[in-house]
Design goal:
The chain is mainly alpha-helical. The protein folds into 2 domains: about 45-265, no CATH class; about 265-420, no CATH class. About 65% of the residues lie in helices and about 0% in strands. It has helices at about 1-5, 10-35, 55-65, 85-95, 100-105, 115-140, 145-155, 160-165, 170-185, 190-205, 215-220, 220-235, 250-265, 270-285, 290-310, 320-330, 345-355, 360-375, 380-385, 385-410. Helix 2 (about 10-35) packs parallel to helix 7 (about 145-155) and helix 10 packs across helix 12. The protein is globular and about 70 Å long. It is a multi-pass membrane protein. InterPro entries: GT87 (IPR018584). Keywords: Cell membrane, Membrane, Transferase, Transmembrane, Transmembrane helix.
Length: about 425
């Protein structure tokens, strides 16, 4: 029993996390070099890299004429970002003749082969990795060695590797969300304001992080919430002035968002339906698709679970659990949640590892966080013990823990139990 209690210490959890995730990174590299260019280890990247960096090169192409919401390549549903992304990508598009690639290949996927574009992408990748490493190291408590090791393994964890290969703006978005989640309730006024602006920037890249603003309401930071909304309106809608048509693009953006949600309604990614679909393919065939009836059931179930989780957030005893609950909802609730959305879990992992004391239930959370970060190197970890197993388990654990905490609170207040 004493040995078991020692395993629940902060240091033990940190060592276990660093050792297991670090080992997975090492084994992944070893088996990838052994397997060569046909190695199964490349499955960690989307579709074995057949459309390498497509999330950035395509957007680069859509932005070149400053009229992305009317660009017909791959359909209007692919142009659903707020204008900040397109305005910034327009600057990058100035270094390459986009139309020549469009005429030669029929799309923009090969833009990354242009040396100038590739150099800019490499520079951007290095910058975001340094930013992520620095923020993790600053927000992680403990010795400098522990801070550095946690930052290192997270910067080369599955969510980061997958997102880097996609070239998706989720990386910048997650960094902004991380700053917000750590400092939105800071006593330092400057840090707090930076956090609120960071959330607004995150929303300007990906609309869904706006959901994280609910933490301000739970914390009764109503004035901060109002300022965040103002920042959001300015940063989200302001860049429309740089696009052809200006603010007339607003209804076009929302129309494209609707088309995007409709197009990507298949059971993939980080939703509960996506997890069921993943396991269906493990135990049946690679072309297995979850029946529509189950997708509909799981969507309704996800909404119900999300509502319950939102109602029990005040009853969680630790800050990391409150943040984890909101982040889990952010990941599983949207009808389409790409695999890269699991990157939002990184600040949750850091907060969890910052806890000085751990409970028995935290062992489940630790295993889930290891699976989320784990770099696949064998069929077992690729097909079973991965994010599609970890997210539902973590969701269920938070749900049960939250309900139990709520019941205990109500009993303590004599609102349920004897005499009621």
């Amino acid at each position: 029993m004493k040995y078991f209690d020692k395993m629940k210490t902060k240091t033990a959890f940190e060592i276990i996390f660093i050792a297991t995730v670090g080992l997975s990174i090492l084994l992944w590299l070893i088996f990838m070099f052994i397997g060569g260019d046909s190695s199964s280890q490349l499955r960690i990247f989307s579709e074995n890299m057949w459309d390498f960096l497509a999330d950035s090169t395509n957007v680069l192409g859509y932005s070149a004429e400053l009229d992305p919401y009317n660009n017909q390549i791959f359909g209007l549903g692919e142009k659903a970002y707020p204008p900040l992304t397109y305005a910034l990508m327009f600057l990058v598009s100035r270094v390459v003749n986009v139309n020549s690639y469009l005429e030669k290949f029929g799309d923009y996927k090969k833009l990354w082969t242009d040396p100038k574009v590739l150099i800019l992408i490499i520079i951007f990748t290095v910058i975001v990795i340094i930013m992520m490493y620095t923020i993790i190291q600053v927000t992680k408590n403990g010795s400098m060695l522990i801070k550095s090791l946690v930052a290192f393994v997270l910067c080369f964890s599955f969510p980061m590797l997958f997102s880097i290969e996609r070239g998706n703006t989720i990386i910048i978005t997650s960094i902004m969300c991380m700053i917000y989640l750590f400092y939105y309730n800071s006593e330092n006024k400057i840090l707090k304001e930076v956090a609120l602006i960071s959330l607004a920037v995150a929303v300007a890249f990906k609309i869904t992080p706006a959901f994280l603003g609910i933490l301000l309401l739970y914390n009764k930071q109503f004035k901060d919430a109002i300022r965040t909304v103002i920042y959001g309106i300015i940063i989200v809608f302001g860049p429309f002035i740089f696009l052809h048509g200006g603010f007339l693009n607003i209804p076009l953006m929302f129309n494209n968002i609707f088309l995007n949600l409709k197009y990507y309604s298949s059971p993939e990614g980080c939703t509960l339906a996506g997890s069921l679909n993943k396991f269906g393919r493990v135990f049946t065939s690679n072309d297995y698709i979850v029946p529509d009836i189950w997708v509909d059931i799981l969507k309704i179930t996800t909404v119900i679970i999300s509502i319950i989780l939102l109602s029990v957030i005040p009853f969680f005893k630790t800050q990391w659990e409150k943040v984890a609950t909101v982040v889990i909802i952010l990941i599983i609730l949207p009808s389409h949640s790409g695999t890269y959305c699991v990157l939002y879990m990184i600040p949750v992992i850091v907060m969890f590892l910052n806890e000085e004391k751990h409970r028995n239930v935290d062992i489940i959370y630790l295993l889930c966080m290891i699976m989320i970060s784990w770099v696949y190197f064998c069929k077992v970890s690729d097909y079973i013990f991965n994010i599609h197993f970890a997210l539902p388990v973590m969701t269920l654990t938070l749900l049960i823990t939250g309900i139990a905490n709520a019941i205990n609170y109500l009993k303590h207040k004599n609102l349920i139990g004897k005499g009621v």
